[in-house]
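> tool_call: predict_assembly(chains=two)
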Amino acid sequence: MVSKIMKTCTHFIDAEIVDGFWKPILDANRVAGLRTIYEQMETTGRINALRILWKPDGEAPKPHRFWDSDIAKWIEAAAYAVGQKYDAELDQQIQHLIHLLEEQQQPDGYLNSYYLAVEPEKRFTNVQWSHELYCAGHLMEAAIAYFKATGNRSLLQIACRYADLIDSIFGSEPYKLKGYGGHEEIELALIKLYETTGNDRYLKLSSYFIEQRGRKPYYFEEEAAARGTSATAIQKLEYFQAHEPVREQNDVVGHAVRAMYLYCAMADLARVQGDESLRDACEKLWNILVSQYLYVTGGIGSSSKNEGFTRPYDLPNNEAFCETCASVGLVFFASRMLRLSCDSRYADVLERALYNSVAASMSLDGQRFFYANPLETKEYYNLDGVSEQQYYTRSSWFDCACCPSNLSRLYTSLGSYIYTAEEDGIAAHLFIDSSVHFAYDGAQLALRQETRYPWDGKVVFTLRTDRPVEFTLRIRVPDWCSEYEISGKETCVREKGYLLIQRVWQDSDTVSFVMKMPIKRVYADPLVLEDVGCVTLQRGPVVYCVESADYDVPLSTVVLSSHAVLREKQEVAGLPADVVAVIGTAFTACTKHPDALYSSDKPSYMPVPFTAIPYYVWGNRSDGVMRVFLPETDKCQP
Amino acid sequence: MVSKIMKTCTHFIDAEIVDGFWKPILDANRVAGLRTIYEQMETTGRINALRILWKPDGEAPKPHRFWDSDIAKWIEAAAYAVGQKYDAELDQQIQHLIHLLEEQQQPDGYLNSYYLAVEPEKRFTNVQWSHELYCAGHLMEAAIAYFKATGNRSLLQIACRYADLIDSIFGSEPYKLKGYGGHEEIELALIKLYETTGNDRYLKLSSYFIEQRGRKPYYFEEEAAARGTSATAIQKLEYFQAHEPVREQNDVVGHAVRAMYLYCAMADLARVQGDESLRDACEKLWNILVSQYLYVTGGIGSSSKNEGFTRPYDLPNNEAFCETCASVGLVFFASRMLRLSCDSRYADVLERALYNSVAASMSLDGQRFFYANPLETKEYYNLDGVSEQQYYTRSSWFDCACCPSNLSRLYTSLGSYIYTAEEDGIAAHLFIDSSVHFAYDGAQLALRQETRYPWDGKVVFTLRTDRPVEFTLRIRVPDWCSEYEISGKETCVREKGYLLIQRVWQDSDTVSFVMKMPIKRVYADPLVLEDVGCVTLQRGPVVYCVESADYDVPLSTVVLSSHAVLREKQEVAGLPADVVAVIGTAFTACTKHPDALYSSDKPSYMPVPFTAIPYYVWGNRSDGVMRVFLPETDKCQP
């Protein structure tokens, strides 16, 4: 019997991004981003580490436990790029890395540059912290991407050999280890590997890792005891989402990237196995995540202490960690939920993360990255180090460099997040100037989407078909959109946030969908302590911030009147010409006693020109500070 | 020639605290506090460490480099207590510790339980981090206190022997080390030792340490290089206030307690040597400190990263570190500035720290302490540990236990901060129900101060004298006080914030000083980002907060209307009966979309009963959260 889920679940179709908002960003990633990351991997010894040459007394830098994942994510990113548009140099770099991996792989399939070089006798004795299974998962994703892009099976074979070894070591059989990785990733990768190879051992192993997680006795405690350490004593099991079986988890906890990758795997497993109770568990976690733990920018994981979740509604702006990888992981999780059900709630969050937290994490030139994406920055000292850094800025690299390549693989595959093939047609989740080819009911179709979104709310779909064909085009109505117009005379049903245009389509048919895109004031739930009395601005999916580059007064003093008339402005100096800023008049709060820190006299409010820019472009003009939320006053004049 | 400073500088006179606000707090400290700390020092091995029994493979806990300072500060605190009211048990405990110190002291005078036991060959090779000079300084302060309290010279002799050794090692002579301690303390202690013994070697050594600090080549860098480490590479010299010569320092930087102890020593040295340029340096640092780095509670040092200062106006509420020792140090610094000049600006800050940040740091029962004193707390996980702590609460002890004994020595000597003897009479800086004896112009005088301050603004001074005598009584008009009445018909000059009552005093003369004490709204300079649009309350010197114990709604949602009528209330359940709370009506912000974290609909405001309690009593009724600043709205009805 085919379950209800399996009947309704869908898959994404690759579209080509032709123009618009993302084009320069993706070009920067493809040209500067991929090159920068490769060079950094060379410079920092990550590529050389694949040669297993490290010796305790040698000159080579000691590899880190997660270096292999940087390599793998870069290969994955580059493979998508090669698949879209062949690039011999890029392909050669990929093949060079594959060659090194091939040389490194042990006869039994084992492959990990840290353990082979540094602790060869300690394989799989510390899966809580070793990142072995995490690195293996990324290797699988890279292999699948390269195989799909080129048909070349070399890396896929390496990945399968390693997966077979892991399958021989972990599992429910009495002679196998009852463990699972401390950083989830292999679970979702194994499902991809199953879907790519058809080998259901991989599905079974993924299911084992997912279902075994959090069961008693706790594997991480037993594993630590076997090593003679009490590793779990210094980190709660919640950090790893390993405190309870996954279906029984009733809160979003721990390290944010770990959580996202687990939830992705749970959603995939629910889909592939038609497991409704697991789908319900995903839905429960999704709802908690987006209603209690999500920043307005799509950032998640508020604390730098655990790079993760703390308490419901604990969403400070300044200390916001919001790791780039966590927002990328949120896009992955949202896309998986979309495959389970074409519901705009998922695409709304996916879009929120994409246009804000994710887009902010790379500089416009593609060469520098944020690891953390706070909603407010201050001048500060780098108190722990020698060098004094006055402002929070993007960096070209990190010791723990998970973010740049994670972002890169999302960007080189961004065309695959626009549409899903639905049972009765096709659904448009994102508004990106693009072109997609698909088949339906024997017809060969091409759907061109033309738009300047998110700067303009007009989207025109044009269909090419080799024959008239009846199907449904679903167009998402975003959560921020309260007014829109759609062309044509068809009855337009709205279902789970999508407009359903069901008709017999002719070649060259067009649909014009126009969303009104006013500047909106956005307020957080007052359970978010830091945002009470404060407001932020949003236009379309784009969240705004103020940046010191636009102000002569200290940003701390800027207050927005609830009566302020705000309007759009393009061609802001130093920003891409099409970027829409928001301008008007705000107040600057001024003390009446400049010599006293505290006073019984309320500060006075003086008018100042107000400029807000999209959050994602902050930090691209000059170093300075930034704020997403501002205090809002009911005063209308000083 | 006697310099201008030396002519005007004054000294504090010990008063006996008779009744009022501080009585139960000081009793709790004297009874529970001193005992708790002594027991903790026993339990944790600090006292046993004085026996130098630690062996690498033994059972005794390894002493820490600053353990000796805990012992010394407890002796100092207990000595003041014994001096006020003899207590044989306490004196016996002190003498027991002195005996252990005597046994431990080396023939050359060296005395440090950590170095003697753990690294005997490494004496004075790491004064940047070793706390040897810091511990020595506290030993001197303890010795002086015990000598003054009892006339017993045993500890004083130990301290002098150690001081002599240090003097033989550090100094400008070519054969001496050109160093100074990484944690200031010995500088101020040596000046006290000079003032107690009259031996000017101690003054000269203190002056050397102060003047040498921050000169190039940097001693800490040379010392680290000599050890073969690059210790300074991981901590900026600003942390130690060792980046520039002290007179050239133009900002308040680094570890807050370190900074306060240095500034104390600078002020003392300026006073003793009549050094006006050094006094000017103190004045410069004082002004920067109180106008850019001071919390409304008298807390200082906003960051936990360096336990210290960051940037001007960087005064976040939730992350506020505000170490107890730093506020205690601020009281010390303010009292030294008061000795240089009878100016109410210093006493105002001293009082602010005392009634708020300092008073908050001990529980009402004297048994638990805050190390950090934030202005806002949240529910939180203890993310780094096994145990999950939901609320920030006081603890009975700390691994680094500097705060309890520091607080304790301030409390047992609190009577000495009320009055200074001035050239032309006496100045009353604090309003504390007390009695002081002093001599002036051959007359023996007693001044009784009766008051319920800070709950009531009325203070009655009654003078007893054995003969009529002409002198000036200075009474401070606090910065918060804009309306007051003073009895009597004399011309009442106001000078540097003090009312000068100059007359021929007769026995039984009284002066009644009545300060109006309304509830005031207090606003921070808008350069303090976190406080813009927010307000706090103050009545007299007491700063208020809201605490979850008084609320049915989440504290994050509480907003105060600028129109709210606020009134006083005593006898709040769970608090001492005389504590004045502030009550009225506030609003709770309510989202119109409980299922959505973000919305374009502004939250609505519903009335809720408002209760604010003095900051210093928070966390004494039940565990929960607290806020000092609240958003303020101009709305007057929902």
